[in-house]
Every structure is written in C-alpha cells, then in structure tokens.
Design brief:
With about 200 residues, the protein is mostly helical. It contains 10 helices and no strands. α4 crosses α5. The longest helix has 27 residues. The protein is elongated. The N and C termini lie far apart (about 70 Å).
C-alpha cells in the first residue's frame, strides 16, 4: 500500500537538539523565532506544526536536555555508596559537563530561566520546579544517610541540600563566564571540604 502525504523533510530530533542549543545559549526570552528557525533549518509554519508554539518547543528542549545532559549528573544519587559520594559525583560531574566544548557552557535549566518581571510565567514556574526538584532529591538522599548514621540526627538536611545545589548553580555561572574545568573542580572540592562541618555538627 502506497504511503500518502509528503514525508517530513527534516529530522525532528536533530531539529529539536539544535533548538535546545539555542535556548541553552540565549535563554527562553533571548532566543528569537528567527534564531530558532535558522538553527533548525525550518520555516515558522513548520516549527509551529511540529511543536505547537515556542513554549511547546522549549518544553521539549528541556525534556531532551534532562534526558541527554542532566542525567549524567544526577544518575548516581540513589546508587552511590554514601551520601558524600553522591554529592561528590554531582559536583564533579557538573564541573565536567559545564565545561564541555561541544555545547554551550553551564546548566540549561539554570541559564535558560527568563527574568521574572514580564516574563513567561509558565516557563518560569516549570524551570523553578525542576530546580526545586534537585534540592528535594538531595534532601531525600541525606535523610537516608541520616537514618544510616552517616549524617548526625541534628543536621538540617534541607539546608545542606540547598547549599550544594546553590554551589552547583554558582558553578554554572562561573562556567558561562569562561572558567576552566580545573577552576570548577577546585570549587567542587572546596564545597566538599565543608561536608564534615555540615553533617556532623
């Protein structure tokens, strides 16, 4: 039976990946429709037909980023032998990922966030929720460590989780400013040196 209709003249996943890089480099607000269509080699009607809207394209780009780029940072969280090993992996993997030469520097989920005043509220809320989720994941891992005796009973696991995520966010901006991988690794090791004071007080 013959196929009806014209086949798509582009690779949707490749086009999405190119859009992801534009959003990663310029942010949601900074990425214009012209930037996106040029990178994706699509005309605006084709973009809208495939993704519905700029917001829909961004949502898919974030999902692709989380699957391809972010997973390597967080995938050891639940399987690391200790909570300290888990945090070390997050920070060292971040230093390595944020300084790769084949894509924009830093974390897309942090850097693509629009300014809150006059910005797209749906996009702001979605990115805020993703960043908060990382704090929750760390806090849950720290609570397990507390039950196992690795972290003392009186330690504030939420504050510790927020601290290490804040360090990671700072590494993102430092990477975007051009810092070397060695500098980011040094920042990671400084933060890890605080572990005993944070967890055994």
């Amino acid at each position: 039976m013959a196929m009806r209709g014209r086949p798509r003249a582009y690779d949707r996943e490749d086009a999405l990946r190119k859009a992801m890089h534009v959003f990663w480099a310029k942010g949601f607000e900074g990425a214009s429709l012209s930037d996106l269509t040029t990178a994706m080699a699509l005309k605006p009607p084709s973009l809208y037909a495939a993704f519905g809207s700029k917001e829909g394209l961004f949502e898919e780009a974030i999902s692709l980023y989380s699957k391809e780029e972010g997973s390597g940072i967080w995938d050891m969280l639940s399987v690391a032998e200790t909570a300290f090993d888990a945090v070390r992996h997050v920070l060292v993997a971040s230093a390595n990922a944020f300084t790769q030469s084949d894509h924009p520097r830093g974390c897309m989920i942090v850097l693509a966030a629009p300014q809150p005043n006059g910005a797209n509220q749906k996009v702001c809320d979605a990115l805020r929720a993703l960043r908060a989720q990382n704090i929750t994941l760390l806090e849950e891992r720290f609570e397990q460590a507390k039950a196992a005796g690795e972290i003392c009973e009186g330690a504030d696991t939420h504050a510790i989780a927020a601290y290490y995520v804040s360090v990671q966010h700072g590494m993102t901006f430092t990477a975007r400013d051009g810092a070397s991988r060695e500098t980011l690794l040094a920042v990671a090791h400084c933060a890890l040196a605080a572990w005993p004071a944070l967890t055994q007080a």
